[in-house]
Amino acid sequence: MHLKSLTLRGFKSFADRSVLSLEPGITAVVGPNGSGKSNISDAVLWVLGERNARNLRGQAMEDVIFSGSSGRKPVSLAEVELVLDNSDGTLPIDYREVSIARRLYRSGESEYLVNGSVARRMDVLDILHDTGLGTGTHSIISQGALDSILQSRPEDRRSLIEEAAGVLKHKQRKERSARK
Ligand code: ATP
Ligand code: MG
């Protein structure tokens, strides 16, 4: 599985529809301070279900909606779509390409879409479960968070490695069967 594209519209500094095409391998985003690099990783976190505005470097969820700039009016809708290549079947969904989208209106209304159909946040989390991608995992490490990982206790660091290796699923299954 790999990220294929990220489309932003009205999300933070991305007022206009912007499409980032991604290839397998490493993609680096470079640009001056304040040009929107971190807003891109915020968009990935957000579309995957982040609910805490602070983890998106804001005060309230509404802060993800483009709030205007000199010569540009605020917009009323933020929208992000992430397309994942699932040709290796990593995601438990019978599509070679999986599109996950999220919308938030200034009125507070919001929705998720999976391959164009309205879905619940839970559906998105289920699709990503134990793939290493998603909120609460370490697939996105924010500026400053690296220190806390380096300073963490060995037990905590072990769970990080388990998460990366995708063994949590098996561990949880083992614990469940031991309880029976
Ligand atoms: P650095 O190199 O300093 O880390 P960066 O490229 O990561 O910078 P970001 O933090 O992604 O920069 O972008 C910050 C910019 O995004 C600021 O100019 C800020 O005003 C703008 N911004 C954030 N939220 C919104 C919003 N809701 N509407 C409009 N602009 C926004
Ligand atoms: Mg940044």
From TrEMBL:
Compartment(s) of residence: Cytoplasm
Binding positions for ATP per the UniProt entry: 32-39
Organism domain of life: Bacteria
Quaternary assembly: Homodimer.
Domain notes: Contains large globular domains required for ATP hydrolysis at each terminus and a third globular domain forming a flexible hinge near the middle of the molecule. These domains are separated by coiled-coil structures.
Family: Belongs to the SMC family.
Function of the protein: Required for chromosome condensation and partitioning.
Name of the featured protein: Chromosome partition protein Smc
Covered range of the whole protein: 1 to 180 of 1184
